[in-house]
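Thread title: Can someone regenerate the structure for this chain?

I was given the following input by a collaborator and told the matching structure tokens would be attached. They weren't. Posting the sequence so someone can regenerate them.
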Amino acid sequence: MPLHWKLVVDCADPLRQAAFWAAALDYAVEDNSALVTRLLAAGALPAEAVTEFEGRPAFRALLAVRHPDDPFDPATGTGLGRRILFQAVPEPKETKNRLHLDLHPDPGAREATVTRLRSLGATVLRHVKENGGEWTTMADPEGNEFCVQ
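Best answer:
Regenerated them for you:
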């Protein structure tokens, strides 16, 4: 049986990163408000660990996005399929990513996708055209590199 997994990204501002990547990928930001509320009421989560995101309680230090067609646990809001979790860490990004996402828009839509991602807060780092292909290397709002093929 295959293992269930998620991609975890260290960052300074998980809410901003989740909002960016949800818009970039057309994913859904997970709504963990029921879980957060339950944990607060039980005294299992301190109030300082909670913030507000899109008008609902959310974990301050982590937030995930999930594919909108994948299942999720309605009691916790946690995705059960393709998801990316953004978690706050104290240290800043200092070097090139060891892992990155490649986005594959429809044929002929790369430039429009790059323009849309720039409007969401991404920056273009370089455009590459080689015998093996053509892509644009970009950075998300915190400088994490990704490619648009």
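The chain has a mean pLDDT of 94.
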